[in-house]
Amino acid sequence: xxxxEVLVWVFGGPGAGIIIYAALEEWxxxxxxxxxxYISIFGTIGLVAAAYGVSVWFGFxxxxxxxxxxxxxxxxxxxxxxxxxxxxxxxxxxLTYKQNDxxxxx
Length: 106
What we know:
Layout: H1 3-12, H2 15-27, H3 33-58, H4 68-101
Helix pairs in contact: 1-2, 1-3, 2-3, 2-4, 3-4
C-alpha cells in the first residue's frame, strides 16, 4: 500500500473512524463516556482534515482547494463520512456486545 492509498483510506473511507476507535479502545479506558464521545467526534474530524491536508501538500489531490470555503467544502463531507463510520463501528462492536450480554437463555 502506498502513502497515497493510506491517506485516501484515512480521509476518504473508514480509516479515521477505525483509527480513533482503536486508539480509544487501547488508551481510553479511564475516560468518561462523554470524554470518549467528544474525542471520537473531534479526533475523527481532525484526523480526516490532517490526512487531507497532507495529501494536498504531497500533491496527491488533483484540484486542491485554494480558499477557506473550498477547504470546508472538501473536508466536511469526508469528515462526516468518517464520523458516521466511527459510530457504525461503535454500534456494532459495543452496543451489539452489550445487548448480547443482557440476553438470557432458558
